[in-house]
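Why does residue order matter? Because the sequence determines the fold. Keep that principle in mind as you read this record.
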Amino acid sequence: MNENPQQPEIESPSEDIKLYSSRAISGATFLAGPLAGGYMVSENFKAINKPAEGRNALLIGILVTIAVFSVVFFVPQDILDKIPNILIPFAYTAIGMALVEWQMGDLLKNHKEENKPFYSGWRAAGIGLISLIITFIALFAGVFLLDNDEVYEQYDAQMEPFFRNESETLGFYDRMDTATRNDQLYELDSSTIPKWVENITIAKKANEIANLPPELIERNALLLDYAELRLETFKLFRKAIKEDTNIYFNNLDRLHQEIDVVINQINSLPY
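Structure:
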Protein backbone atom coordinates (compact mmCIF):
# COMPACT_ATOMS: atom_id res chain seq x y z
CA MET A 1 0.00 0.00 0.00
CA ASN A 2 1.25 3.49 -0.79
CA GLU A 3 2.22 5.29 2.43
CA ASN A 4 1.60 8.72 0.87
CA PRO A 5 -2.15 9.10 0.15
CA GLN A 6 -1.42 12.17 -2.00
CA GLN A 7 0.82 10.29 -4.43
CA PRO A 8 -0.58 8.22 -7.33
CA GLU A 9 -0.09 4.48 -6.94
CA ILE A 10 2.93 3.34 -8.96
CA GLU A 11 4.19 -0.19 -8.69
CA SER A 12 7.93 -0.72 -8.64
CA PRO A 13 8.88 -2.44 -11.90
CA SER A 14 10.01 -6.03 -11.52
CA GLU A 15 12.69 -5.90 -14.17
CA ASP A 16 15.96 -4.00 -13.95
CA ILE A 17 14.94 -1.07 -16.10
CA LYS A 18 16.87 2.17 -16.08
CA LEU A 19 15.35 5.41 -14.86
CA TYR A 20 16.44 9.02 -14.56
CA SER A 21 17.08 9.94 -10.94
CA SER A 22 15.56 12.94 -9.19
CA ARG A 23 19.00 14.49 -9.05
CA ALA A 24 19.51 14.10 -12.81
CA ILE A 25 16.06 15.49 -13.57
CA SER A 26 16.49 18.51 -11.30
CA GLY A 27 19.98 19.28 -12.61
CA ALA A 28 18.95 19.05 -16.26
CA THR A 29 15.82 21.11 -15.62
CA PHE A 30 17.73 23.86 -13.85
CA LEU A 31 20.55 24.05 -16.39
CA ALA A 32 18.72 23.25 -19.65
CA GLY A 33 15.11 24.24 -18.97
CA PRO A 34 11.73 22.59 -18.44
CA LEU A 35 11.88 20.74 -21.75
CA ALA A 36 14.79 18.59 -20.52
CA GLY A 37 13.04 17.74 -17.26
CA GLY A 38 9.77 16.99 -19.02
CA TYR A 39 11.49 14.64 -21.43
CA MET A 40 13.25 12.69 -18.65
CA VAL A 41 10.08 12.32 -16.60
CA SER A 42 8.32 11.23 -19.78
CA GLU A 43 10.94 8.53 -20.36
CA ASN A 44 10.56 7.31 -16.77
CA PHE A 45 6.83 6.93 -17.25
CA LYS A 46 7.35 5.07 -20.51
CA ALA A 47 9.79 2.73 -18.80
CA ILE A 48 7.09 1.65 -16.32
CA ASN A 49 4.49 1.20 -19.07
CA LYS A 50 2.60 4.45 -18.51
CA PRO A 51 2.81 6.09 -21.97
CA ALA A 52 -0.18 8.43 -21.41
CA GLU A 53 1.44 9.92 -18.31
CA GLY A 54 4.68 10.17 -20.29
CA ARG A 55 3.03 12.19 -23.03
CA ASN A 56 1.46 14.46 -20.44
CA ALA A 57 4.81 15.03 -18.74
CA LEU A 58 6.45 15.99 -22.03
CA LEU A 59 3.54 18.28 -22.90
CA ILE A 60 3.87 20.01 -19.53
CA GLY A 61 7.59 20.52 -20.19
CA ILE A 62 6.82 22.10 -23.55
CA LEU A 63 4.06 24.34 -22.14
CA VAL A 64 6.25 25.53 -19.25
CA THR A 65 9.03 26.30 -21.75
CA ILE A 66 6.58 28.39 -23.80
CA ALA A 67 5.45 30.14 -20.62
CA VAL A 68 9.07 31.02 -19.75
CA PHE A 69 9.57 32.41 -23.27
CA SER A 70 6.39 34.46 -22.89
CA VAL A 71 7.74 36.00 -19.70
CA VAL A 72 11.05 36.85 -21.37
CA PHE A 73 9.43 38.29 -24.52
CA PHE A 74 6.40 40.10 -23.19
CA VAL A 75 7.10 41.21 -19.63
CA PRO A 76 8.41 44.82 -19.71
CA GLN A 77 12.18 45.06 -19.43
CA ASP A 78 12.06 47.32 -16.38
CA ILE A 79 10.16 44.59 -14.50
CA LEU A 80 12.53 41.85 -15.67
CA ASP A 81 15.49 43.92 -14.47
CA LYS A 82 14.09 43.77 -10.94
CA ILE A 83 13.91 39.94 -10.97
CA PRO A 84 17.18 38.15 -10.00
CA ASN A 85 18.48 36.08 -12.91
CA ILE A 86 18.52 32.93 -10.78
CA LEU A 87 14.88 33.21 -9.71
CA ILE A 88 13.14 32.01 -12.86
CA PRO A 89 15.11 28.73 -13.30
CA PHE A 90 14.93 28.14 -9.55
CA ALA A 91 11.14 28.61 -9.61
CA TYR A 92 10.38 26.25 -12.51
CA THR A 93 12.85 23.67 -11.21
CA ALA A 94 11.29 23.73 -7.72
CA ILE A 95 7.78 23.38 -9.15
CA GLY A 96 8.90 20.63 -11.50
CA MET A 97 10.60 18.64 -8.77
CA ALA A 98 7.54 18.94 -6.53
CA LEU A 99 5.53 17.34 -9.33
CA VAL A 100 8.17 14.63 -9.80
CA GLU A 101 8.12 13.85 -6.09
CA TRP A 102 4.35 13.67 -6.13
CA GLN A 103 4.14 11.53 -9.24
CA MET A 104 7.04 9.14 -8.79
CA GLY A 105 8.91 9.94 -5.60
CA ASP A 106 8.30 6.49 -4.05
CA LEU A 107 9.20 4.77 -7.30
CA LEU A 108 12.58 6.50 -7.57
CA LYS A 109 13.27 5.96 -3.86
CA ASN A 110 12.51 2.22 -4.09
CA HIS A 111 14.50 1.95 -7.31
CA LYS A 112 17.54 3.38 -5.54
CA GLU A 113 17.11 1.25 -2.38
CA GLU A 114 16.91 -1.92 -4.48
CA ASN A 115 20.15 -0.93 -6.26
CA LYS A 116 18.48 -0.88 -9.64
CA PRO A 117 20.25 1.05 -12.39
CA PHE A 118 19.86 4.73 -13.22
CA TYR A 119 20.99 6.46 -16.35
CA SER A 120 24.36 8.10 -16.04
CA GLY A 121 24.90 11.78 -15.47
CA TRP A 122 26.53 11.98 -18.90
CA ARG A 123 23.33 10.82 -20.56
CA ALA A 124 21.35 13.38 -18.58
CA ALA A 125 23.86 16.04 -19.61
CA GLY A 126 23.47 15.01 -23.25
CA ILE A 127 19.70 15.31 -23.03
CA GLY A 128 20.16 18.71 -21.41
CA LEU A 129 22.42 19.79 -24.27
CA ILE A 130 19.94 18.63 -26.91
CA SER A 131 17.12 20.39 -25.06
CA LEU A 132 19.17 23.57 -24.92
CA ILE A 133 19.77 23.40 -28.67
CA ILE A 134 16.05 22.89 -29.34
CA THR A 135 15.18 25.69 -26.94
CA PHE A 136 17.66 28.12 -28.50
CA ILE A 137 16.43 27.28 -32.00
CA ALA A 138 12.87 28.03 -30.87
CA LEU A 139 14.08 31.19 -29.12
CA PHE A 140 15.89 32.52 -32.18
CA ALA A 141 12.93 31.61 -34.38
CA GLY A 142 10.68 33.58 -32.04
CA VAL A 143 13.03 36.55 -32.03
CA PHE A 144 13.25 36.41 -35.83
CA LEU A 145 9.47 36.35 -36.20
CA LEU A 146 8.99 39.18 -33.73
CA ASP A 147 11.69 41.23 -35.42
CA ASN A 148 10.08 40.56 -38.79
CA ASP A 149 6.72 41.72 -37.46
CA GLU A 150 8.33 44.92 -36.20
CA VAL A 151 10.02 45.51 -39.57
CA TYR A 152 6.74 45.01 -41.42
CA GLU A 153 4.97 47.39 -39.05
CA GLN A 154 7.73 49.97 -39.47
CA TYR A 155 7.62 49.59 -43.26
CA ASP A 156 3.81 49.90 -43.39
CA ALA A 157 3.91 53.02 -41.22
CA GLN A 158 6.58 54.63 -43.39
CA MET A 159 4.73 53.80 -46.62
CA GLU A 160 1.33 55.00 -45.42
CA PRO A 161 1.85 58.55 -46.82
CA PHE A 162 2.87 57.00 -50.16
CA PHE A 163 -0.51 55.33 -50.64
CA ARG A 164 -2.39 58.33 -49.29
CA ASN A 165 -0.65 60.49 -51.91
CA GLU A 166 -1.47 57.93 -54.57
CA SER A 167 -5.16 57.91 -53.69
CA GLU A 168 -5.39 61.71 -53.67
CA THR A 169 -3.54 62.30 -56.94
CA LEU A 170 -5.29 59.64 -59.04
CA GLY A 171 -8.43 61.68 -58.67
CA PHE A 172 -6.88 63.89 -61.34
CA TYR A 173 -8.14 61.43 -63.97
CA ASP A 174 -11.73 61.82 -62.74
CA ARG A 175 -11.55 65.60 -63.02
CA MET A 176 -9.87 65.81 -66.44
CA ASP A 177 -13.14 66.06 -68.39
CA THR A 178 -14.67 68.77 -66.20
CA ALA A 179 -11.77 70.91 -64.98
CA THR A 180 -10.49 73.88 -66.96
CA ARG A 181 -6.97 73.93 -68.37
CA ASN A 182 -5.92 76.39 -65.69
CA ASP A 183 -7.42 74.23 -62.94
CA GLN A 184 -5.65 71.16 -64.31
CA LEU A 185 -2.31 72.94 -64.46
CA TYR A 186 -2.79 74.32 -60.95
CA GLU A 187 -3.61 70.86 -59.57
CA LEU A 188 -0.61 69.30 -61.29
CA ASP A 189 1.79 72.00 -60.09
CA SER A 190 0.50 72.43 -56.55
CA SER A 191 -0.41 68.89 -55.58
CA THR A 192 -0.11 65.99 -58.01
CA ILE A 193 3.46 66.34 -59.24
CA PRO A 194 4.92 67.34 -55.82
CA LYS A 195 3.24 64.36 -54.17
CA TRP A 196 4.80 61.91 -56.61
CA VAL A 197 8.18 63.56 -56.04
CA GLU A 198 7.51 62.98 -52.34
CA ASN A 199 6.54 59.34 -53.03
CA ILE A 200 9.89 58.70 -54.70
CA THR A 201 11.63 60.06 -51.59
CA ILE A 202 9.42 57.90 -49.34
CA ALA A 203 10.23 54.73 -51.31
CA LYS A 204 13.96 55.45 -51.21
CA LYS A 205 13.90 56.06 -47.45
CA ALA A 206 11.99 52.82 -46.90
CA ASN A 207 15.00 50.97 -48.31
CA GLU A 208 17.02 52.29 -45.38
CA ILE A 209 14.96 50.38 -42.79
CA ALA A 210 17.25 47.95 -40.95
CA ASN A 211 16.83 44.21 -41.64
CA LEU A 212 14.32 44.75 -44.42
CA PRO A 213 13.23 41.26 -45.66
CA PRO A 214 13.98 40.37 -49.31
CA GLU A 215 10.29 40.39 -50.23
CA LEU A 216 9.93 43.97 -49.00
CA ILE A 217 13.09 45.01 -50.83
CA GLU A 218 11.63 43.58 -54.05
CA ARG A 219 8.26 45.19 -53.40
CA ASN A 220 9.81 48.55 -52.65
CA ALA A 221 11.91 48.48 -55.81
CA LEU A 222 8.72 48.01 -57.84
CA LEU A 223 6.97 50.79 -55.92
CA LEU A 224 9.88 53.09 -56.72
CA ASP A 225 9.59 52.22 -60.42
CA TYR A 226 5.84 52.81 -60.15
CA ALA A 227 6.31 56.24 -58.53
CA GLU A 228 8.82 57.31 -61.17
CA LEU A 229 6.46 56.24 -63.96
CA ARG A 230 3.58 58.14 -62.35
CA LEU A 231 5.73 61.25 -62.02
CA GLU A 232 6.82 61.02 -65.67
CA THR A 233 3.19 60.54 -66.74
CA PHE A 234 1.86 63.56 -64.84
CA LYS A 235 4.72 65.73 -66.09
CA LEU A 236 3.84 64.71 -69.63
CA PHE A 237 0.17 65.47 -68.95
CA ARG A 238 1.21 68.94 -67.83
CA LYS A 239 3.23 69.46 -70.97
CA ALA A 240 0.34 68.33 -73.18
CA ILE A 241 -2.15 70.56 -71.35
CA LYS A 242 0.22 73.52 -71.35
CA GLU A 243 0.82 73.19 -75.08
CA ASP A 244 -2.80 72.24 -75.75
CA THR A 245 -1.75 69.36 -77.99
CA ASN A 246 -2.40 65.63 -78.54
CA ILE A 247 1.03 64.83 -79.91
CA TYR A 248 2.05 63.11 -76.65
CA PHE A 249 -0.85 60.67 -76.70
CA ASN A 250 1.27 57.68 -77.79
CA ASN A 251 3.86 58.36 -75.10
CA LEU A 252 1.14 58.65 -72.45
CA ASP A 253 -0.39 55.38 -73.64
CA ARG A 254 3.01 53.66 -73.41
CA LEU A 255 3.56 55.00 -69.87
CA HIS A 256 0.15 53.75 -68.75
CA GLN A 257 0.91 50.31 -70.15
CA GLU A 258 4.20 50.25 -68.26
CA ILE A 259 2.38 51.32 -65.10
CA ASP A 260 -0.10 48.45 -65.52
CA VAL A 261 2.76 45.97 -65.84
CA VAL A 262 4.41 47.20 -62.64
CA ILE A 263 1.09 47.16 -60.77
CA ASN A 264 0.54 43.54 -61.80
CA GLN A 265 4.05 42.66 -60.61
CA ILE A 266 3.40 44.32 -57.25
CA ASN A 267 0.06 42.55 -56.85
CA SER A 268 1.64 39.18 -57.59
CA LEU A 269 4.08 39.48 -54.68
CA PRO A 270 3.23 37.73 -51.38
CA TYR A 271 2.63 40.26 -48.63
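The chain is about 75% helix and 0% strand.
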